[in-house]
Amino acid sequence: MAQEKTYKPLSKIPTHVAVIMDGNGRWARARGLPRLAGHRAGTENLRRVITACVEFGIQYLTIYAFSTENWERPQEEVSGLMSIVEDVIDRELDELHRQGVQLRHIGRLERLNPQLQSKVLAAIEKTKNNTRLILAIAFNYGGRDEIACAIRHMISDGVKPEDVTDELIGKYLFTHGIPDPDIIVRTSGEMRISNFLIWQAAYAEWYVTPTLWPDFDKDELYKALVEYAQRERRYGRVLETSECVPDVGKTPAGR
Ligand code: FPP
After folding, report:
1. Given the residues 24, 45, 70, 217, the one annotated as active site
2. 110 alpha carbon to ligand 1 midpoint, in Å?
3. Which is nearest to 188 in space by CA: 18, 38, 21, 28?
4. How close is the Cα of 123 to the center of ligand 1, in Å?
5. 113 an active-site residue?
6. What are the residue ranges spanned by the domains of the chain?
7. What is the pLDDT of residues 156-208, one digit of tens each?
C-alpha cells in the first residue's frame, strides 16, 4: 500500500485561505485542448485542494470561480462553466457534506439560470450546520459590485453617516460572518487583484506562484502555508522586536 506523505507541522496555519484559481486556459492550451478542458481539470483539482485544506486544519477557503467580468468571455465558455458548477453540485455535494464542508455563495445569484440558483440554495441549506471547513464560492462575484451593493443596502436601511464603520460595512458585505482572508493565493504568476475581495484583502498576505491552477496540488498548498508561517504580519504597526533587533553584522558594543 502506498505510504501517505507526511508534512512537517507548521508554527501557524491561516484561518482563512482565499484562492484566485488562474491558469486553466493556459493549462489546456499547453496540451492542445479546449479551454473548458482546463476548467474541468481545475475543478478536479479543487476537490483535491478542499480535502487538503480539511487535512491541514484550515477553517475557511474562498475560491474565485466566476467574476462579474467573466460574462464577457465567449458564450460557450460561460455556459460551460455554468454546467460545470451544476455538475459539481450534482456529483460532489454528498461527499462534501460527508467531509463536513459548509457551502457559502458570495456574489449575486440573480443572473444565473433558475435551476442553478435553486441547486446552489439547496446545497447551502443542506450543508449549513457543517463546521469542518467553510467553503465560500465566489461566483458572479466582483469586489466593487459587493461594495456598491453594501452601500445601497445601508442607504435603504437608513444607516446614519456617523454610524458607518469598518465593522458595519463588513456586516453588509457578501462575506458577512467570514473573517478576512489571512492569505490570498494566486496561481499562474499574474500579480493582480482582479476585483477579488478588495475590501477584505486589506491585510492579507499574498502568495503568487507560477504553477497553473490544475497543477496546484497538496504539496503546492503546503509550500504556500510554509511561506505564510514565515511571514511577520504587522498590520501597519511596528513590532517591538524589530525596534530592539541590532543591525545585522553589528555587535551591540559596535553600535
Ligand atoms: C481562471 O483561469 C479560471 C476561471 C475564470 C474559472 C475557474 C473555475 C473553475 C476551476 C470551475 C470550478 C468552480 C466550481 C465552483 C466548481 P483562466 O481561464 O483565466 O486561465 P488563463 O488565464 O490561463 O486563460
Report:
1. 70
2. 21
3. 21
4. 21
5. no
6. 16-254
7. 999 999 999 999 999 999 999 999 999 999 999 999 999 999 999 999 999 99
